[in-house]
Design a protein that fits this description.
about 15% strand; seven-stranded mixed β-sheet; Rossmann fold; single chain; alpha/beta
Length: about 260
Amino acid sequence: MDVLKRNNVKVFGQGDKTLLFSHGFGCDQNMWRLITANFVTDYQIVLFDHVGAGNSDLSAYDKQKYNSLNGYAEDLLAICQALNLSNVILIGHSVGAMIGILSAIRQPEYFQKLILVGPSPCYFQQEEYYSGFTYTDIQDMLNHMETDYVNWSLTFAQFILGNKPHPAHVQEMTDSFCNTHPEIAKHFAQVCFLSDNRSDLALVKTKTYILQCSDDMIAPEEVGRFMSQVIEESVFIKLQATGHCPNLSSPLETTSVIESCLAD
């Protein structure tokens, strides 16, 4: 199958350097639109949808392949290969950031920098690792998805956007969740929220920037600081933006910080 069609890959913009955007759970490439508009004159932009999201080819969804985040990382690397990319600057959000990390570990030659927005290597607390959720919290959330996916979509959209989210942003996130095939979304949620990739962080050799939002209930500050301590060549950046989706709720600040990372 043509990987560019399978993952609904879009390439546009100008410039010798490439920005490759990897979206998070329940989203698609459209969530980057307020960010990419600022880079089209100086960079080649590559957008894609993870299989099961957006306008990806749903027939390509293989539950066995996508039973871990490595299946998604395999797709990301296949896109790099198909487009003959090099020195890529990957900008990943949430689980899309972790997929980027796994990709850079497997084939670091493709990547120059990783700019990670709200990443988390593990969403449930273990011993001295604080994540904001217990394992029971995660299971309760997954059970809610199973019993009432539509209601879960609205509740989770409000939750991830933080305190006093804009109604239009809540509606967009809710619609995004509802536009994802429910069975695929449920399986992706299990893979995403039950994964533990903490041991992979020490293997990252690519220069990494960790963009941490304020009051992010999905990936709290302790998670971002944990990652910056383990990843050898990393920079921790605290944003004023609140919630988990600054690419949607605070695009100006997010763009400004990304620009500083690119210039570093």
